[in-house]
Amino acid sequence: MQRNGVCYDVGRTMLGQDWRPDFDPAIVRRELAIIHDDLHCNAVRLQGFDLGRLTTATALAFDAGLEVWFSPEMWDRTPEEMLPYLAEAAARAEGLRRDHPDRIVFSVGSEISLFAQGFLPGTNVLKRLANPKLREILFSGALRAPINAFLATAARTVRAAFGGPLTYASVGFEEVDWGPFDFVGADLYRGDPHYDQYPALLERYTKLGKPLANLEFGCCTFRGADHWGGRGWQIVDWGHRTPRLTADVVYDPGTQAREDAELLRLNDAAGVNATFVFTFVEPGAGLTPRLRRRLARLPFDPDLPRYSLVRSLPEGQHGATYPDLPWEPKESFRSVAEFYATHPPRAP
Question: What is the CATH number of the domain that holds 166?
């Protein structure tokens, strides 16, 4: 691999909830330095909605010695709403690129069939996922033309202002025309029912003739989460006053640590150019303010449905490893750090 990376959320926004409710540039600077120095990354994928936060975090990532994969995400909006947003994001990214040429890649979107309006029925991603005809629509081929039409327009829009390389974070069922892009991009988790076919999945993308970036992959923190893959977050039903588990599972950071390391090994063996483990920290992913206040009273470990490499601590608490930060590294932090330390980025 040429890029050893991790995803970093500056504030993804879904259903009106900011997944990073508190954005403190001092903490962001510290975390990005840890990502470079202790996790042994040379790249970071910055994800979020607010362009001011993305711009600030990009400058801090450059200071830390990291290459940035700039990933603005406007979820649950129409293509018509997303294009002006991407144009503004491209202008901001170009201002950063001029000072740091060859250190920034722009992603024009993330799994738009699921996270944008206009491709699948439903006003938000949860309703789209709950559609009883979802699989029928996904595998009918009906999404191919509208998705590629939007992506071609999005790429032209971004290139009008941004002079660096482009990618897009696709999902497996999207049949993307990669002509407008410099990197093939995909979110390639492993899980049932195709758990044993992961090497073949990687090969499918590495054969497309452009360098492959695995932009999002990882594992939650419960026993058996490796077989849930990208669906691991669904182990909790948040729709009740007291959220509850949808299956009988137990908290197990060892499963996450082993799976993250194994996925890195498989990606490296397949010749993937860039890997971004999902994700570094999840201080408030998907949680309303009421639920954040009640985490200590949940009937299960609140870190159980998390993909993060660090365990966020209750408000006011700090970790032992990094006493200035409100989290503690998990076993997966150490397994990813060990892999990256012993598999340094290859020269282009």
Answer: 3.20.20.80
